[in-house]
Every structure is written in structure tokens, then in C-alpha cells.
């Protein structure tokens, strides 16, 4: 499960050994990629602890194809914290190009509010623009995936979508 500090190998699915893609939380608490959970309906066991994944009536329905496995896997909770950590690690990966200009320069900075990576030229412009003047722009080398994930917008615990806050009077 996601921790305060996720080492690179903690962001990897223990089945496919790749970065998590849509990490699903099994009843035992282990995380697996959504695509790695789908084949487990046959054994009905977590590959890490052998804990039961589907309760007996559901497993029976899966065997006799009354319920599609993909539909059930979609109802397993997604670990949005881990998903954000994986996405943040990708953004911070070395060799990232500037996401602001078309010059294909190497990104050296990241805006902690916009989450845009930028080269030194774009950094200077970003700091001069009135709408982004107060933003916290940091060196890519000094930011951790955990810190970047935490600086993003708050996410809905049920859907993982950005929460939008607004005044109902306006």
C-alpha cells in the first residue's frame, strides 16, 4: 500500500514488475495493476499472500460467466495515492523535455501549482507573468515524487477526479 515515502520498487506491481497502472486494492490490502487482477479469477488468490480475492458466491458467478470479471475488478478500490506517485515519478524522470515551449529544451524546473515542467527560458517567463508570479517553481532535481503528488489538486476519494471548489452564490 502507499506509504509516506514510496521507493521506486514500491511503485511497481509485484506481478508485472512495471509501474502501477490503475492500482487496485485487494481485500488483503495488497496492490496490483488492474490488468494483473483480471487473470486471478481462476485461482481466486492473491499472488503475494494467497488471500481470497472474491467471496465464494461471486467466484461461482465468475466461473459460470454470470458476471464479467472486468466489471468486478472495476469495483475494487483504486489506490489514487499510488497512482499519483507513479504519475509524479514519470513527470520528474530525468530527460523530461520542457512542457511549455516547442524548443524541445530539457526541463530544469517544475511549477508546483501548474505542474508544468519548464526550461530556464520558460521559467523566467513564468515568474514574470501576473497569473503565475506567485507560484512556487522549483528545480526538478530537488522535488520528490511524494512532494509533487501532494502538491497536486485534491482528488475525490471515490472517483480519483480533481475536486472542484466553487462559491454557490456566484
UniProtKB/TrEMBL annotation:
Segments forming domain B box-type: 93-140
Keyword Metal-binding attributed: yes
Residue stretches making up the RING-type domain: 13-50
Keyword Metal-binding among record annotations: yes
GO molecular function, one term: zinc ion binding
Keyword terms, alphabetized: Metal-binding, Zinc, Zinc-finger
PROSITE patterns membership: ZF_BBOX, ZF_RING_1, ZF_RING_2
CDD domains on file: Bbox1 (cd19757)
GO biological process entries: protein monoubiquitination
Matches recorded under Pfam families: zf-C3HC4_3 (PF13920)
UniProt name for this protein: RING-type domain-containing protein
Origin organism lineage: Eukaryota, Metazoa, Spiralia, Lophotrochozoa, Mollusca
